[in-house]
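Sanity check

After download, print the first record. It should look like this:
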Amino acid sequence: MTTFQSQKTKIPRIRIPTEYFPQGNFMTRRVFFCFHYQRDSWRASKIRRIGAIEGNPVASDNAWEEITRSGDATIKNWIANQFIGRTCTIVLVGAETAFRPWVRYEIQQSWNNKMGILGIRIHNILDHNQTTSAAGPDPFDSIILNDGRKLSSIARLYNPPSSNSRAAYNIISVNMSRWIEVAIATRQNNERLRIETP
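Expected structure tokens:
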């Protein structure tokens, strides 16, 4: 265990497992963010601003509505274009993320495009109303690989061990680069595995 002490005196002292402590220097990666847009976009926007990564541009509310009104083919094309040049997908997991069909599609396509994939629980990050949320199910748990295992047996879902929003954010910020590298290496080590899609 490693002790984490924020420089902000208002944040309580907490103990963090060593898996949440960064080791080494990591390059900036281009990643794709996957999240429940209506419910978690505010929380997701905070995580997307972390400087160690370069995320995909987010569609505005109006642009996303226009994309979704145009039908499934347009949505799939938009997602495919967002994947270009990305090496990893980060699923930002809130209360209802696992139930969103397009989140599931993005996870499946990310894995089958040989991108690294990881999840981060963001329910303890404050939203625009300054409230937290509930932890939802693991979105990797319902996705089955072609060897019969659940994706959750390989893809990690990180849960920052703090109910304090600022502390949770700091844990994510400090560790995200390493988590991305682990996810990319994990995908490379499981190169032959695929997700069967309908």
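If your output differs, re-run the checksum step. Summary of this record's structure: The first strand starts at residue 2 and ends at 4.
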